Amino acid sequence: MPFSVIEGTFHVVGYSPDGDSVRFRARDEADWRKLSGPPVVLNAREHAQLRFEAIDTLETHYLNSHQPLALATAALEFLLADLGITDVEWNEARTEVTSATDGTGGYILSRATEGNRRPVAFVYAGEPPQGEEGSDVFLDVEKLRESVNYRSLERGLAYPTYYKGLFPDLREAMSAAVVRAREEGLGVWAEDRTNAGFAVEGPGSLSEEHVILPKLFRRLAEYLQAGGPVAGFDAFLEARAEEIIVIPNVHATHLDTVVEVEGETVRMTERPEDLIFEG
Fold it and tell me: What is the top-level taxon of the source organism (predicted)?
């Protein structure tokens, strides 16, 4: 299935972007109707919130918490620089961009929206190749490597987080970039504790100390906010029954089966690039 090329502009003023979160205004609003799934949610400024395909960067704000901010901020700064957004000013609480060189041009490649009605997209700065404007294209690995998504992974600024529907050749290319970044100790991989394990000493340790897969962080943040003991986290995950596929053996299972909890220590038993999430 081809991807739709949707041209437009990127926007951050009045919003709180992070390393995989930015608003986009399509040059032609009718382009959104090319995507399968529920209709895209647009705000009063005709801006859509994008969901970047296949990557997840450290959280800068989630349930009044965050992950280690130096790495989260590095991912955001890379995104802004890659999209040509400069002179960014924040409010005092750093919860909203108050000014910037907003509305820089670019385009996305997208096939569908997700459950929250966000376009699932590969993101690109600049103009699409001549002849591809407003058309449908097949995304190969060479073109993938030009995307912000891939470029964030190869620099170690994002974790791979795959969902059903991502083509295997694209996923494999992204996983190869992850392996190289990990071997070189780039970005998050210099401090990652997802598989090695980490002691959860309250929400503060997740915010300030432990660099882990953002999806795992979000589940822990949700659980700890309710006041439960760490020892009950695996039962919490089991009750959620989030479907996953473990890629090496094509095993369909649930997230709780790849998370171990021993006392106050939590770890994942499979590497992030070896998992496909249901949604």
Answer: Bacteria
